[in-house]
Amino acid sequence: MPFKMPEQPKCPKCSKSVYAAEEMLAAGAKWHKQCFKCGLCHKRLDSTNATEHQGELFCKQCYGRKFGPKGYGFGGGAGTLTMDKGEHLGNTECEMTNRPQNTNV
């Protein structure tokens, strides 16, 4: 029986094999060091600032901006209050509006 190399895990970002010398562990997967970057700002991550959402990696700052609380009152002071919904970050989940709903009964 010929020798068969064991199957190497694939990086979720580039789908190439990840070997032990270059692996980073996060989100239940093994990543290449060069692929272990934030999905928004592309900053290199490590175990202290990496967060995961639906299989994609983010730094803690970008994760908070994209998936954290939105709207009035979140931010810690009058200088940081905003009605930014995060469209520039690709956020389309939030449907905040102050217009009254047309409810003709």
TrEMBL record:
Gene3D superfamilies: Cysteine Rich Protein (2.10.110.10)
Keywords per UniProt: LIM domain, Metal-binding, Nucleus, Repeat, Zinc
Cell location: Nucleus
Domain LIM zinc-binding stretches: 9-69
Matches recorded under Pfam families: LIM
Source superkingdom: Eukaryota
Coiled coil region boundaries: none
PROSITE patterns: LIM_DOMAIN_1, LIM_DOMAIN_2
PANTHER family hit by this protein: MUSCLE LIM PROTEIN MLP84B, RHO-GTPASE-ACTIVATING PROTEIN LRG1
Name of the protein in its database record: Muscle LIM protein Mlp84B
Annotated organism of origin: Fragariocoptes setiger
